[in-house]
Write a structure and sequence with these properties.
The complex is a heterodimer of chains A (199) and B (250). With 199 residues, chain A is an alpha/beta fold. In chain A, strand 3, helix 4 and strand 4 form a beta-alpha-beta unit. In chain A, helix 1 crosses helix 2 and helix 4 packs across helix 7. The longest helix of chain A is centred in the N-terminal third of the chain and has 17 residues. The radius of gyration of chain A is 20 Å and the shape is elongated. The mean pLDDT of chain A is 88. By secondary structure, chain B is an alpha+beta fold. Chain B has two domains: 76 residues, OB fold (Dihydrolipoamide Acetyltransferase, E2P), CATH 2.40.50.140; 162 residues, de novo design (two linked rop proteins) (Up-down Bundle), CATH 1.20.1440. Helices cover 39% and strands 22% of the residues of chain B. In chain B, the strands form two sheets. Chain B has a five-stranded mixed barrel. A three-stranded antiparallel sheet of chain B has the order 7-6-8. In chain B, helix 2 packs antiparallel against helix 8. The longest helix of chain B has 19 residues. Chain B starts with a strand and ends with a helix. The model of chain B has no long low-confidence stretch (mean pLDDT 91). The chains are: A alpha/beta (199), B alpha+beta (250). At the A-B interface, helix 6 of A face helix 2 and helix 8 of B. The complex binds zinc ion (2 copies). The site of one zinc ion has 8 residues of chain B, from strand 7 and helix 5.
Chain lengths: 199, 250
C-alpha cells in the first residue's frame, strides 16, 4: 500500500473494512471517489454520518429506525397478534416488500451458530419472550434463513414458545435449504409466508 | 493449476463476500481442506445443498492463490435428521467441532473418516443420541492415541482399584485413592461408569443404542470423556455451550 500517497492509502484501507470489499474493489472505489465532483463526495460523507447518527434500533422489535418505537411497532393498522421473527433488519425490508405480511416483527440480530460460539444468549431471544409474555401475541412466524443456523434458531425458539400456548410456524415452502433469505425473490418469500408450517 | 477430487464431510462453513461460502471439509486422504464455494448461498446455486455443514459428498478442489476453491460438488448424503432435530443437531455440531479441533490440515486418516461417517449415519437413526455420542468420543480418543486408562491406576499402575476411584485428566485416566491425593479437585467415578465406557468402546456403533444406562451413569461418563478430551485439546469447545443449553433447557 506504500505506493500510494498517505490520504489515498487511508481511504483504501477504510473501504477495505467494509464487507465484501477486497483490495481491488477498494482501489477502484477510491479512484472513483477522487474522480467525481467534490459535492457528490460531500453528500456521500454526509449521508454516512447522518445515517450513523440518526438511525437507532427499536427498543421493542430491534429493527433499525429513526424513532423509538419504530413506525411498524406504533402502526395501529398492523396485526398485533402476529410476530414474524427474522435474523436481520434487512429481512424486515424483504418481508415488507412482499406486501403479504401485516403483523409485527422481531429482529434477533443474528442466528444461533453452535460451532461459531453464538448461543441463544447472544441474540435477542429474551426480548422476544418478554414481548410474548404480555399475552397479545397468538402466532409467531419464524422467518430465519433456511440454513443450519436458521434451522437451529427456529427449533430452539419453537421449544421455548410452544409451552406458552402460542402457535409457532416456520416459513418454508419454496425456499431452498442452504440459502440466504436475502437472495430469494419477492414472489418466493410471499409464497413462503402463505405456506408456513406449524412447528 | 492442481485439481483433485476427494470425498469428504463438511465440518464447518463460513460466509464470505456477497454470497460465497468457505467450507472446511474433512477428507480421508488429506485431512482438513479449506476451500471456497463461489455463490453457494444463492438459492439457485449448484452448491447449495452440497456445501452445508454435515454434508457428505465428492468434492473437486482446485488450488487458488490465497484459498483453494470447489469447482464441483456431488452430494452423497445430507443427513436431514441432523438438521431438523434440535438435540441431534447439537450433538452433531459438537462432534464436527471436535474433529475440526483434533485433526490438522494435511492429516488424513481413513479410520477417523469412516468413524465420523458411521457416527453421522447412526446418529441420524438412533433414539439414543447421548450414548452414541459418548461412544464416538471414546472411540475417536482411542483411534487418535488418547485412550483414557480405565482398568488400572494411571499413576502407580495398581490393578485392583479399591472403593475410591478418581479420574485425573492430567494423568489421562483413573487413579487409585492413594494417588488421588497427589492432585487437587479430582472427581470420583463409579465402577458402573467405567464399565459403561468400556462397553461403549467395544460395541459397534449400530448396536450402541441397545446398551442400557441410567441417568447418573450417563452424566458421569459424559463428564469424564469431555474433561479428558478438553484437557487434551486444551480448550473448551464452543458448541458444548449450545449442547448444554439444549439438553438442560426446560
Ligand atoms: Zn419496532
Ligand atoms: Zn495409584
Amino acid at each position: 500500500m506504500s505506493r500510494y500517497v498517505q490520504p489515498m492509502a487511508d481511504l483504501i484501507e477504510q473501504l477495505m473494512r467494509l464487507p465484501s470489499i477486497g483490495p481491488k474493489t477498494a482501489q477502484r472505489l477510491a479512484f472513483h471517489i477522487l474522480k467525481i465532483p467534490k459535492e457528490n463526495v460531500e453528500r456521500l460523507a454526509d449521508a454516512l454520518i447522518d445515517a450513523k447518527n440518526k438511525i437507532i434500533s427499536c427498543s421493542v422489535c430491534g429493527n433499525i429506525t429513526e424513532q423509538d418505537p419504530c413506525s411498524i411497532c406504533t402502526d395501529d393498522r398492523r396485526d398485533k397478534t402476529l410476530i414474524a421473527v427474522v435474523e436481520e433488519s434487512k429481512d424486515v425490508i424483504l418481508l415488507e416488500r412482499t406486501g403479504e405480511f401485516h403483523g409485527l416483527y422481531h429482529v434477533l440480530g443474528g442466528a444461533i451458530s453452535p460451532m461459531d460460539g453464538i448461543g441463544p444468549d447472544d441474540i435477542s431471544i429474551s426480548g422476544l419472550l418478554k414481548r410474548l409474555s404480555h399475552g397479545t401475541v397468538k402466532e409467531v412466524i419464524i422467518a430465519t434463513d433456511p440454513n443450519i443456523e436458521g434451522e437451529a434458531t427456529s427449533m430452539y425458539l419453537a421449544r421455548l414458545i410452544k409451552p406458552l400456548d402460542i402457535k409457532v410456524t416456520r416459513i418454508a415452502h419454496g425456499l431452498p435449504v442452504g440459502g440466504d433469505l436475502e437472495y430469494a425473490d419477492e414472489v418466493t418469500i410471499a409464497r413462503a409466508i402463505e405456506g408456513r408450517r406449524e412447528l | 493449476m492442481a485439481v483433485f477430487t476427494t470425498e469428504g464431510i463438511i465440518l464447518k462453513t463460513q460466509n464470505i463476500g456477497e454470497a460465497d461460502r468457505v467450507c472446511t471439509i474433512y477428507s480421508p486422504g488429506k485431512g482438513k481442506i479449506r476451500a471456497v464455494a463461489k455463490g453457494a448461498r444463492r438459492p439457485k446455486s449448484r452448491f447449495i445443498s452440497s456445501t452445508q455443514v454435515f454434508a457428505y459428498g465428492d468434492f473437486q478442489i482446485f488450488s487458488g492463490k490465497s484459498l483453494d476453491g470447489i469447482s464441483q460438488a456431488q452430494l452423497k448424503e445430507a443427513f436431514p435428521r441432523l438438521h431438523d432435530d434440535l438435540i441431534k443437531l447439537a450433538y452433531a455440531g459438537y462432534i464436527v467441532e471436535l474433529i475440526d479441533k483434533m485433526v490438522g490440515e494435511g492429516a488424513g486418516d481413513q479410520i477417523v473418516f469412516n468413524m465420523l461417517l458411521a457416527y453421522m449415519r447412526v446418529l441420524s437413526e438412533t433414539h439414543d443420541p447421548q450414548l452414541v455420542t459418548v461412544a464416538f468420543e471414546i472411540k475417536i480418543a482411542t483411534v487418535l492415541g488418547y485412550r483414557p486408562r480405565l482398568g488400572s491406576c494411571s499413576q502407580c499402575g495398581k490393578k485392583r482399584l479399591g472403593p475410591g476411584i478418581f479420574f485425573s485428566p492430567e494423568s489421562g485416566g483413573v487413579v487409585c485413592k492413594e494417588c488421588s491425593s497427589n492432585e487437587f479437585g479430582l472427581s470420583r467415578v463409579s465402577r458402573g461408569a467405567l464399565r459403561l465406557l468400556e462397553a461403549l468402546l467395544m460395541a459397534e456403533f449400530a448396536k450402541i443404542e441397545r446398551i442400557k444406562a441410567n441417568r447418573e451413569t450417563r452424566r458421569e461418563i459424559e463428564k469424564l470423556i469431555r474433561t479428558h478430551l478438553g484437557y487434551r485439546l486444551n480448550q473448551r469447545l464452543r458448541s458444548l455451550d449450545f449442547l448444554d443449553a439444549v439438553i438442560n433447557a426446560p
